[in-house]
Amino acid sequence: MKPDRNKTRCSESLNSSDKQEGRPGLIVAHHGVAVEVLFETGERRMVRVKRNSGHVVGDDVVVIAEVLKQMPRKTELLRRDARGGIHLVAANLDVLGIVVAPLSPSGFIDRAIVAARVAELQPFLVVNKCDLPETAELLTELISTYTGSVPIFPVSAVENSGLAAVEQFFAVGHRGAFVGTTGVGKSSLLNVLCPEIELKVGALSDYKGQGRHTTTVSTLHALSGGGELVDTPGFRDFGLVEITEDDLAIYFPGFEGHGEITCKFRNCRHRSEPGCAVIERVSQGLILAERYATYLEILTEVEKEKAELRSKGWKNQ
Ligand code: GDP
Ligand code: ZN
């Protein structure tokens, strides 16, 4: 799904000077029926929009009276809701923080890395709860698996430790968001990084009870050291858009660093195809057998999900 990139929104009639003088701005908050636009001067203004207008936080716009003209997007982050619908979460992000802690489900990291890469966002890992002794083992394992694939930041939101490195990562001008399963500490991290948010920690069930039309405020926060963090509650706890077998075969972490992997078949799934360069590198020990096994596991899951969706008659896969 590609939203209409050049959609303009008409509401009130325009006077002719406003019509000519569009002001470039950035959408920094979405309140459902209105968006907040930040102008280069630092001034902010609310502009009314229709529900499902297609405008999202991170969009560059030109404001002409009450009309928003959307500029082309560099990236689009999508989420899938429980019923399979795809929604645009934020525009023009360039990094995605994958937050994990002990007991995070296996496979989540790899899927999130692949989903980020598909959307052309740079993934990075935030290993939270490093104050707990049981996190040490997880951290060692993640460092051995993902070093060379993605940046890794060990942190503790409760002790406010390790977060300076995350801030430095953002400081080069990155704009990002956090994803992770419930309970890993995303709200806690956002509270430490953006103290003005004051999210309720461990209060996720609040969102689940909300009706379909209830407004979820989505905001873009400028970090004090530079960079920006988008907080979209409706995204933090819903799934990333599912990945396809092709995405997985191309972007799976651990397959990079081997130059262009050139298999005999262009759409090779690296399972049992003849002339598969991945299988060959696994047999040479260049790709860890363990990573390859994880890849095959996720590939099987993705194929199963696809078959199930197909049997339910869902399109758009
Ligand atoms: P979210 O569901 O990902 O937003 O997670 P929350 O921020 O709501 O945190 C879930 C639980 O983990 C809460 O009880 C937090 O107090 C706890 N928690 C968050 N960060 C840390 C941390 O760094 N260390 C420890 N020990 N607990 C944490
Ligand atoms: Zn292959």
Q: Which short descriptors sum up this protein?
A:
single chain; Ribonucleotide Reductase Protein R1, domain 1; binds guanosine-5'-diphosphate; eleven-stranded mixed sheet; SH3 type barrels; Rossmann fold; three-stranded antiparallel sheet; 317 residues; disordered N terminus; binds zinc ion; 3 domains; alpha/beta
Strand element count: 14
Taken as a percent bin, the fraction of beta residues is: 15-25%
Q: Which descriptor suits the 3D outline?
A: globular
At the fourth CATH level, what is the homologous superfamily of the largest domain?
A: P-loop containing nucleotide triphosphate hydrolases
Q: Figure out the total of helices.
A: 10
- Please identify the top-level CATH class of the largest domain: Alpha Beta
Assembly state of the chains shown: single chain
Q: What's the helical proportion of residues? A: 25-40%
Helix-strand sequence = HEEEEEEEEHEHEHEHHEEHEHHH
Q: Give average pLDDT, whole number.
A: 84
CATH topology of the largest domain: Rossmann fold
How many angstroms does the end-to-end distance come to? Answer: 10 Å
Task: Describe what you observe in this structure.
The protein folds into three domains: 24-70, SH3 type barrels (Roll); 76-231, Rossmann fold, CATH 3.40.50.300; 245-315, Probable gtpase engc, domain 3 (Ribonucleotide Reductase Protein R1, domain 1), CATH 1.10.40. The termini are close together. It is globular. The protein contains ten helices and 14 strands. The strands form two sheets. Strands 1, 2, 3, 4, 5, 8, 9, 10, 11, 12 and 13 form an eleven-stranded mixed sheet that branches. It has a three-stranded antiparallel sheet with strand order 7-6-14. It has 317 residues and is α/β, with parallel strands linked by helices. Bound molecules: guanosine-5'-diphosphate (GDP) and zinc ion.
